[in-house]
Amino acid sequence: MVLSVFRVLLLCCGFLLALQGCSPKVSIAPAAEGGELQTLAVLPPEYNAKLQREKVEAIRDSLETELRNRGFVVLADRLVDELCSSPQCPERSQLAERYQVDGFVSLDLRSVSRANFLAGYYNAIRGIMTISDVNATSLVSVEHTQSERGGLLFHSGQVFQGLISQVENTEEKSFQRLSAKFAETLASKVPKPQALETNAVTVAIESTSVKRIQPQLFEICIDATPNSLGSVLINNRRSTLREIANGRYCGTFFLDRSIVENHIMAELRSPFGNAVRKEISSLPELEVCDLDNKVFVKKAGQNSRIEVACTKVDKRPVIDGSLCGSNIQDCSKDKLFVFRSPTRLGPYLKVAEVRSPVWTDSARSGKAFYQVVAVSPSGVWSLPEDASEPKEKK
Amino acid sequence: MCRLGCAPVKPFLALLLLLSGCVGKFKHELGFNPGEPIRVAVLPAAQVDEKGQVMEPDNDYLIDNVALISARLKETPAAFVRNLVQNELTKSGLDLVSPAVVDANLSHSGYDDLKANPPYNLEKILNSDPKEICSRVLSCDAVVYTKITDWDRNYYGIQTVNSVGVEITIVSASDGRVLFRTTASDSESRGLTKGPTGISDVVLEPIRGLDNEIITDLARRTVSKMLAPLKVENRPEFLQSSPPAIYASAHDARGGTLSTSEPLIVVASATPKQDMFFSIGNIIENIPMVERDSGHYIGKYLPLSTDSFNDQPVYVAVTDQFGRVTKQKIGTGAISLIRN
Q1: CATH class of B241-337
Q2: CB contact under 8 A, B290 and A256
Q3: What does pLDDT average to over chain A?
Q4: Residues of CATH 2.60.40.10 domain(s) within chain B?
């Protein structure tokens, strides 16, 4: 009798402990109860040194997504990482002033545990999310342990389900599942924000400009809404621009024709995720003579003669003698740089700078290898082309 | 003998198979390169009936009031699935418009309905023109429409079957083309087919199977599988080619200090005909490099008058047409740009 009472008590205690572990501890200051928090900055997370950084970053990303889903406007990570020198972010007043941030979200991850004992498993993530104001006064605090258990031991009433859950308990899958739920629970405890003023996140690009600094080096600038994130989209990649003056974003780029042929777009992103784009149409000409399969080397007595062919007959390049005509492209304004090397692999040294398509190397009589580069009037270089021996026209 | 004995067994077996919950159906149509950073707005999702008409979710389950068995969902299935879609798309290359911006702009553009939960005119949203959404309401390139075609928890005494059906479509705003469409229906069961270990389990497990957490977990898995083709690492082309490689890289900053007037030159040898970039820490990101000769890339960075950084590593990265990225930290050391 005594034993059974003791067992019941033990079960009740275990049950209470289990319940305590499942429900988050939430404290909300009166200042945050009415949905006053609207724009948040998620600070770099603090975490136990034993935790994997990738897992910590994944939980931070999940938390940001969940806060956005809840209706909050979340400041871009880039701005937070740039300004904050530590997870506490002593520079938070700058963020508040510049981007009107209402709350600073700190995530203190205590543990990410994974216990797998063949007949069952128990995985858990434990941490505290705190939202504080600019003076680091806590407004919302949520402490939560997200756990999941499975396998035969914990699905003792359903054998097949126990086996299925055990098989599905791979590290990656279980972590993804658990971290998503952990972030979801934390975000769900924060009072929903009031409706957003759309003007607060609107951005606009006024104009774009391009300045040539060196032959292929350009400064691209956009004039746009201040305190935003400017970038240039090149081949589906965002290259960052820096705000050098109020509302003026610039960057320097080394470009060639293949890059410019694709559309280059300027993009301005509000710190909270809204964005506008504008095509950069004022890029200067980067055309240069194409020497592909058109450079030949011939014997001229003891010397070598370099000839550049500019027209094609029967799909084969032939020596023309005149500068490139309109058949291919106008190269008459380009200069030709000739490089020479004693071996095919180099090193190649510049030996001549000519405008004529024919040039004789009178300084060297033995065997040598040549490469030719066309340089446009604006200084743009073509790809180097090896000089080869021509096949005579039949 | 069998005429009498087998007749009830056959439908019973068929019912067991049907109820076992192993009948997930997934269908994908992909019509664009998910590596493109197109800007996408995920519109509020709607639950629809067999005829495709927007319906109110049936949340009135008694079991949701029984503590320790189930709990009410904090939001409608449609709102929950929209969040899942949003979460999964953050793992793709798509550039998502913030949900707060989407919701605020829809509310201010005549797509709201304050009597509904969530407060949107979902019928109007489902039938909206993506061109109008992306030009008049939001700044985006494409719109994501989500329909919940099935969200059911069915109790059959000895078995419970939870089923979820979702349809997700991404439509281009410029030409109305369907960029991606995926449909799925899947189910999860508890009870007889999952091997009860005692008489009491035959009765209890189907009741436990009505737990809302089971159907939400099922929805999580379903949406994740539906949007898997948009995650670059899951595309089949990957299996047929090697990812791009970087063989060598270097920069010309002597002693790690940059001149304010001369460009930093970065060179790399990598797989030919790819897009190559270099970055200085996380301050100056993705400066394009030019392929000077087959597989030989060169990039330059000239500091702006306001640029300044200390001890930043330089990375080169090469990316192929599928969006696979190979990154290398340049071994010649970190660089600094210090202004007096």
Answers
A1: mainly beta
A2: yes
A3: 80
A4: 241-337
Which of B43, B81, B87 is the best mutation test for A, with the most CBs of A within 10 A?
Answer: B87
Residues 6+ apart with CB under 8 A from A87: A43, A44, A45, A46, A106
Å between B1 CA and nearest CA of chain A: 33
Cite the residue boundaries of each domain of chain B with CATH code 3.40.50.10610. Answer: 23-237
User: In the structure, what pLDDT confidence band is assigned to residue A373 with cuts at 50, 70 and 90?
Assistant: confident
Angle between helices B99-107 and A53-69 (to 10 degrees): 10
Q: Could you tell me if A29 and A146 lie in one domain?
A: yes
What tokens appear for A335 in the block?
A: 């200069």
- Please tell me the class of the B23-237 domain: alpha beta
Residue type, B208: R
Distance from the Cα of B268 to chain A's closest Cα (Å) equals 15
> Residue A112 domain-assigned?
yes
Same domain assignment for residues A248 and A153: no
DSSP H or E run through B130: helix B130-132
Last residue of a domain, one of A158, A188, A218: A188
Which of A216, A247, A279 terminates a domain? The answer is: A279
Chain B residues closer than 8 Å to A15 by CB: none
Residue A13 inside a domain? The answer is no
At A293 the pLDDT is: 75
β-partners of residue A111 are: A126
A2 by DSSP, 3-state: which?
helix
Percent of the residues in chain A that have a pLDDT greater than 70, as a whole number: 84
A195-212 mean pLDDT: 78
The tokens for A47 are 């975490």
Q: Does any CB of chain A come closer than 8 Å to the CB of residue B89?
A: no
Provide the CATH number for the domain around residue A379: 2.60.40
Instruction: Show the domain range for A150.
Output: 24-188
Between chains, do B98 and A71 touch, taking CB under 8 Å as contact? Answer: no
Give the model's pLDDT for residue A322.
46
Residues 103-132 of chain B with CB under 8 A from chain A are 103-105, 107-108
What ranges in A157-313 are assigned the alpha helix state H? Answer: 159-167, 171-188, 257-261
Q: Which of A8-12, A31-35, A303-307, A364-368 has the lowest mean pLDDT?
A: A8-12
Residues of A in contact with B100 (CB under 8 A): 68, 71-73, 193, 196, 201, 272
In the stretch 167-206 of chain B, residues with CB closer than 8 A to chain A read 190, 193-198, 200-201, 204-205
* Whether residues A229 and A273 fall in one domain: yes
Going by C-alpha positions, the residue among B202, B222, B307 that lies closest to residue B24 is B222
Task: Reply yes or no on whether the pLDDT at A368 is more than 60.
Answer: yes
Of A78, A252, A384, the CB nearest to B301: A252
Residues A378 and A246 in one domain: no
Nearest CA in chain B to A243: B306
CB contact under 8 A, B100 and A72: yes
Q: Per residue in A108-165, pLDDT tens?
A: 988 888 888 778 888 899 999 999 998 889 999 999 999 888 877 777 777 788 788 7
The conformation of residue B197, written as its DSSP 8-state character, comes to S
pLDDT digits 0-9 by tens, A261-301: 777 889 998 887 778 888 887 677 667 777 777 788 888 78
Q: How many residues does chain B have?
A: 340
Distance from the Cα of residue A239 to its chain's centroid: 8
Q: What is the pTM of this model?
A: 0.70
Domain membership of residue A10 (yes or no) is: no
| Beta carbons of A275 and B36 less than 8 Å apart | no
